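Q: For a teaching session next week I want to show students how multiple molecules come together into a single three-dimensional assembly. I've collected the sequence lines for a complex. Could you give me the predicted C-alpha cells for the whole thing so I can convert them for display?
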Amino acid sequence: SQQGEEDPQALSIQEGENATMNCSYKTSINNLQWYRQNSGRGLVHLILIRSNEREKHSGRLRVTLDTSKKSSSLLITASRAADTASYFCATAHSGGYQKVTFGIGTKLQVIP
Amino acid sequence: ETGVTQTPRHLVMGMTNKKSLKCEQHLGHNAMYWYKQSAKKPLELMFVYNFKEQTENNSVPSRFSPECPNSSHLFLHLHTLQPEDSALYLCASSQDRPIRGTEAFFGQGTRLTVV
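A: Of course. Below is the structure for the complete assembly, covering every listed component.
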C-alpha cells in the first residue's frame, strides 16, 4: 500500500519565493528521505532524516519530521528556476527489511 | 552522473518481443532494485537484490524476470508484455538496506513503450 503521500501534487511559484512540500505517511518509519526528479530522468537523493531527528538542513533545503503526526515537510528557500522538478518523499518502514516506499510526488514549477 | 547506468534509455517493443533492460553500478553497493514509474502513480518497487540474492518480489507478473549475475549488474528480462507495462523503469542501488538509513542512487531510467 502507498506509504508516503505528498501534498500538494503540484506547486507553481515565482523565482525567489520559498516552496514548501509536505509528506504524510501511515505506519512507523525508521527514516524518511526526500528525492528530486527532473522530467523523465532518475531520482536524485536530497536529504535523509532519521526518526529520532526533528529537523535537518542542507544548503537551501530544510526538512522537518513530526513522528507524532506522521508527517514531514521539505522547504526550499529562495527558489530558482533550476529547482523545477518533481519531489518525492520515501519512507523506510520500521520492522521491515529493506523496502522503501515512495509517494506520487509534488511537481514544482519555479517561474523565472 | 549518479554512478548507476541504465541501458537502453528508450525502448519500443511489440507484445510478442523479448528484450532485456540492463543496469550497472560501480559504487561497490550491495543492494540493487528495480522500480516501475507510471504516470500519476507512486513509484512501485518491483524487485530487490541483496548480495546477488533476490530478497523481494513485489507480486510482479512473471513476464518480468530479473537476473543479478553479480553485485554490479542487474537485468530485467521482458517477454510478452502488455501496453499497460509501458512506463519508466528505474534501477537503483544502495550500500546497505534502506532500513539502515542509506540513500539510494538511481539510474536515468529506461522509457519503455509496448505497442
